[in-house]
Amino acid sequence: MPQIKTYCRICLSSCGLIADVEGDEVVRVRADRDHPLSGGYSCSKGRGLPEFHRSPRRLLAPKVRRGENFEQMGWDEVLDDLAVVAP
């Protein structure tokens, strides 16, 4: 099983991680003992990244609020809308 060195992007600590990957799926994540900043530490959120990737609640496309609901939109439409309201 391929192992990929990476880091956690959940917070600013950027803890070093090693991800076990099967195909395009992250199967397991553990702390990277050789990482110069975290030195083998990772919190439970970082180690839980595989569950975040597989969550049925994960957003796979942009959505915009319309009243009480969210509607899926295309990236081009979202970026056009942002360009109008961004300073």
TrEMBL record:
Keywords: 4Fe-4S, Iron, Iron-sulfur, Metal-binding, Oxidoreductase. Pfam families: Molybdop_Fe4S4. The keyword RNA-binding does not apply. It comes from Sphingopyxis flava. This is Molybdopterin oxidoreductase Fe4S4 domain-containing protein. One of its GO terms (biological process) is anaerobic respiration. GO terms for molecular function: 4 iron, 4 sulfur cluster binding; electron transfer activity; molybdenum ion binding; oxidoreductase activity. It is found in: Cell envelope. The keyword Lyase does not apply. Belongs to the prokaryotic molybdopterin-containing oxidoreductase family.
